[in-house]
Amino acid sequence: MPTQTLRWRDDALILLDQTRLPEELVYATYRHVEELARAIEGLVVRGAPAIGLAAAYGVVVGARAAVNCAPEAFCRRVEDAIARLARTRPTAVNLFWALDQMQEVLAANRGRDNHAICDALLEAAHRLFEEDRQICRQIGAHGAVLLRDGSQVITHCNAGGLATADYGTALGVVYAAQEAGKKVAVFADETRPLLQGSRLTAWELMQSGIDVKVICDNAAAVVLRNEAIDCCIVGADRIAKNGDVANKIGTYGLAILAREHGVPFYVAAPVSTLDMALASGAEIPIEKRDAAEIRNGMGKPTAPDAVPVYNPAFDVTPCDLVSAIISEKGVARAPYEPTLRAWVEL
Length: 346
Description:
single chain, 346 residues, alpha/beta, Four Helix Bundle (Hemerythrin (Met), subunit A), Rossmann fold, 4-stranded mixed beta sheet, globular, methionine biosynthesis
């Protein structure tokens, strides 16, 4: 299993600081909601499932800090924590899914002793964590069937253990195939502008003994043409009911390239990533990030100080470019809506 990205210990949330990888393996401890919210915004923790889990534990952090307040003030403080955490990242629906569950636990336990409510919230966060571990394994098992022994895969961004409670979604497919005795090689897009592919995916796969090569994002077309690629596998931050997929910026371009080269394009994500309230990807909110991420890539000047910057963190891949969606419930193929709806209703 890859290095654990988050854990609860001594009434605090401990996060692997992913902004320090691959140079340093550093863990930070969070006992205050505002500090944790800024850590989520600053990508100390990232990846849709991990963001949701961090937020769930963040609600517990807020509750622990308010445990000595009067009951009504305590509940207001917890609700304030939920509201603050909901403002951190707009695109990943897992964040809101997890916070909604924590809100339901708070509502169901109103009137109980503050300490009892804290315990109920912590139990819920632990449950979400364990569920995510099982979900990763199920996604991996369903997806591994799609890979042959000797498969070569391209992935974009990081959807592995660093983004979840276990070994990931897109990378979980690779890990499960390896556990099944299949040899799989991965080409990891570097994933500009923050290089989650080269900094995180390559590091993680090397830790697990997976054959991995880093490629520049703009080398993907050449790799698809020359390297006998079997498929592309990516994660997702939100999936609309028609199968449109929001994922890290650059995913859409990779999907177009995959279609042009006749290579299957798979999306691996938990059912919690589905947003059946949205008819299509056109309705998915796309986070815009600070211009400094492009003007000063990795801390060095990479563009003129005054140049305007367009820096969306995600793009939307239309469903007609997606060969299959892999979840813990199975594998869906177009038309997506009937299967996605059935997954949600199971």
